[in-house]
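Quick one before lunch.
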Amino acid sequence: MNRRLEIHRADDGYIIPLSELDVSEGKRFQDDSIWGCFERLRREDPVHYCQNSAHGPYWSITKYRDIVAVDTNHHAFSSQQGVTIVEVPDKHWTPSFIKMGPPQHAEQRNTVSPIVGPESLTRLETLIRSRVRMILDGLPRNEVFNWVTKVSIELTTQTLATLFDFPFEDRRLLTYWSDAAVTTPKAGYAIDSWDKRSTILSECLDYFTRLWNERINAEPRLDLISLMAHSPVTRHMEPTEFLGNLILLIVGGNDTTRNSITGGLLFMSQYPSELRKLTDNPKLISSAVSEIIRYQTPIAHMRRTAAIDSIVGGKPIRTGDKVVMWYISGNRDEEVIENANSFVIDRKNVRQHLSFGFGIHRCLGRHLAELQLRVLWEEILDGGLKIKVVGEPERIASNFVHGYSALPVRIEA
Ligand code: HEM
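Model of the protoporphyrin IX containing FE complex:
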């Protein structure tokens, strides 16, 4: 802990003038040096204006209570101009229900919500448990492998394929499209233009349109495509809106849970006393799952746009301003969460975190995400698996998806 705070103070987040501090730079997330920047903003300028960034000027909201105030006031802070700090060019814009307000938002959300209702979750738990067992049984013993690809991506992609009733053998396409959807095009990278990104996503649309056409002519079923195809609210969506909702559901179900699965293993290795608490008392699993999701904060921010003039934390926000709620910072706010920089699986009020957001857009899939993590940890403990993290994680250079591309581990047989 102390070591971590020392690193914060030495990092340039504490040295550069506040007016020049831009917390949206992806490299700070990739090299894990972002914490000092947010700690400083929470102390010195909790509602901070950054004039110059790759994404234009924006406000950073960094304290827990201010974030809740913004997130729960959708009249003043609208998601309709986008939910990430990146500006998507008009030509590549795809509507989806997270970018809608009342009443369309609730109508579309309610259309797909049975997929995470009690009936569906009960069925999914049995399926997820059998898949978790298969995945864990199939892992190499006494050799190093990447936990991200073999477990985190595999489990979440299998679950997502079931939600869509998507051909199982093609499931890695979901991972591919999800990764493309959250990529901001950059010269020199695999996705180097918005056109390239759109080409990949149009393959996604074509594939799902075939599934839609099959399902619309069949009896209604409990899968995401059938739910949308048979609802009067969504059955006449334009293709761009269908694609937007697909991206929302694919990214929602994929990247977030994937990175919580990886983060959980990493944190248990960084805090062996917490792992011991869990092995001594498996009843703590549900609590540990919430703490993993808080500590990871898989979605680092959500963006809103001011629909009216208002005051947040004493600062005047003007109509049209871009407002970024940094959940990743609010989740480390010591005023609300005691000893917030530590991973403590049995902390008081463990469910009190921002990772799922608040207000009308609060995460639709949160119970499913928690279910996957819970079942995974139940099976790890039940099987007595000794999983050792044997190297540093590789982190993604993103200010939106807070996660990992690799975590080397070895299971000792
Ligand atoms: C919305 C996080 C898992 C589907 C959100 C939001 C966050 C979030 C931060 C926006 C909240 C806001 O704007 O106030 C997470 C995290 C997850 C997770 C941290 C895992 C640990 C899932 C899963 C699904 C899902 C498994 C499955 C389908 C959605 C959808 C929305 C959403 C559809 C949009 C809700 C709306 O606009 O009404 N999620 N999510 N999420 N999430 Fe999740």
